[in-house]
Specification:
The protein is of the alpha/beta class and about 425 residues long. It has two domains: about 5-285, HUPs (Rossmann fold, 3-Layer(aba) Sandwich), CATH 3.40.50; about 315-420, no CATH class. Helix content is about 45%, strand content about 10%. The protein has helices at about 45, 50-60, 80-105, 145-155, 180-190, 200-210, 210-215, 225, 230-245, 270-280, 295-305, 305-310, 330-340, 350-360, 365-370, 375-390, 390-420, 425-435, and strands at about 5-10, 15-20, 30-35, 65-70, 110-115, 135-140, 160-165, 195-200, 250, 285. The chain has a ten-stranded mixed beta sheet, sandwiched between helices. Strand 9, helix 10 and strand 10 (about 285) form a beta-alpha-beta unit. The protein is globular.
């Protein structure tokens, strides 16, 4: 059995790097970095080892033994954080085995060896029992995390907002989407909440590794989403949890979608349940929305917490604005806002520009409406809801758009069938005429 060394080193007082050697996937990344909002003070060396967990996920498909090393840990390291780390590392191989069996058709056995200098007992130890109870909330700014924020505030709990940013994060790349930072800061400032940004390229690295893992993956499930997303969030937040003395971390994205078999596969109870148990020695992980579908989330947000709902920013494609007004997600929320009577100015959604973009020749939004089972199910559910609520204007608008989407879908399919039959010179001539 091959042995790989996962090392965690300090690049600066705030930035850590996780690297695995030798590289089992030549030509692909074998490291990622994490930067925290301030210098890590408490048990930084011990908690840095949690970064080995997301690294072990792609390595688990090499069916190898892992050894974790870090120069950050002193030989005399000890205390509650060490005991918690030992328990979490002991539970991790069982989680990987079960999750790979579920998503990839076979159980992957991994053998993880923590550094030999880690002392401590094997007895359960909740490291933050005596600390003042503080709550963190994974915050993306969409309907799910806003609903959990509203519920927490209604209970008198003012959570610390934890937002992840970095290259490869959809909608949360600060270079491609600086508006994300501005919106996070505005919400925190206006609601009097603390905000902590964690920067990392881990999501982009895990996404890049997908082609290297294709031969080892039995099913077509996206590795970066299906298995690694939530575990990575929890592993990367662990040093911040210790530093901020958080006793609870809440997640707002474990919900059911419209269909029984459709869900956020990275946030289902089947994944987050075991994760809650694994990380229990360090903090209490609470997924909040396990019984709700997205439509119920939207309804609850705007009926129970409309003052929180008006902060919503759910568009991934925006550039310097809150909404790009030209993508499938903007279309979806346009329909929802009309369906539930939410004034567009409340969420800074420019209806006139959106409809103008939708009317442009070659608008790509229609190409996306029927792209995949989830979206098809989504819009059929919205159409049914419009009928049930006697919203005839929304029903007509959505039915017309779905008809246009079906027409464009058939047109694309026909072009794909005919293209091999057209001689290359004619294809080149047709492209030249179009240009």
């Amino acid at each position: 059995m091959n042995e790989y060394v996962i090392s965690i080193e300090e690049i600066s007082s705030r930035r850590l790097e996780c690297r695995w050697e030798p590289n089992p996937f030549p030509g692909y990344p074998n490291s990622f970095w994490v930067e925290y909002p301030s210098t890590l003070k408490r048990a930084a060396g011990v908690t840095s080892l949690y970064l080995a967990l997301p690294a072990s996920l792609p390595l688990s498909f090499t069916e190898s033994r892992f050894r974790i090393e870090s120069s950050l840990i002193e030989p005399q390291a000890g205390g509650n954080e060490v005991d918690a780390l030992r328990q979490i590392l002991n539970g991790w191989p069982h989680f990987v085995k079960n999750i790979t069996a579920r998503h990839f058709g076979r159980a992957v056995e991994i053998h993880m060896e923590p550094p030999v200098m880690l002392p401590g007992a094997d007895t359960p130890c909740h490291s933050l029992e005596s600390a003042q109870r503080k709550t963190g909330l994974f915050f993306g700014g969409g309907a799910e995390s806003l609903l959990v924020l509203g519920e927490l505030l209604a209970k008198g709990i003012k959570p610390i907002l934890i937002s992840f940013l970095g290259p490869g994060w959809i909608g949360s790349d600060p270079v491609r989407n600086p508006t994300k930072l501005e919106q996070d800061s505005r919400i925190a400032s206006q609601l009097g909440l603390q905000l902590r940004h964690i920067h990392s390229n881990v999501y982009g690295v895990l996404a890049q590794l997908q082609p290297a893992l294709q031969e080892r993956i039995v099913t077509g499930t996206l590795f970066a989403n299906a298995v690694s997303f939530t575990p990575s969030l929890l592993a990367l937040v662990a040093p911040l949890v210790v530093d901020e003395e958080l006793s609870t971390v809440c997640q707002g994205n474990e919900i059911q979608q419209f269909g029984e078999d459709l869900s956020f596969h990275c946030f289902t109870p089947e994944i987050t349940g075991p994760l809650s148990a694994i990380f229990a020695p360090l903090f209490d992980y609470q997924p909040w929305l396990g019984e709700m579908n997205k439509l119920t989330v939207f309804e609850n947000l705007w009926t129970r917490h409309p003052s929180i709902g008006h902060y919503q920013y759910s568009c991934y494609a925006n550039r310097g604005e809150r909404w790009c007004l030209n993508c499938e997600k903007c279309f979806r929320y346009y329909v929802l806002y009309r369906l539930y009577g939410v004034p567009f100015e409340t969420v800074e959604f420019n209806e006139e520009r959106f409809l103008s973009n939708l009317a442009q020749p070659g608008c790509t939004v229609f190409d996306e409406l029927l792209d995949g089972e989830y979206r098809q199910d989504t819009y059929q559910t919205l159409l049914k809801t419009a009928v049930e609520q006697n919203k005839s204007d929304v029903e007509r608008f959505l039915a017309r758009c779905l008809q246009q989407a079906r027409w464009q879908q058939r047109r694309r399919q026909m072009k794909a069938l005919l293209r091999p039959m057209v001689p290359p010179p004619i294809l080149r001539f047709m492209r030249a005429v179009r240009n």
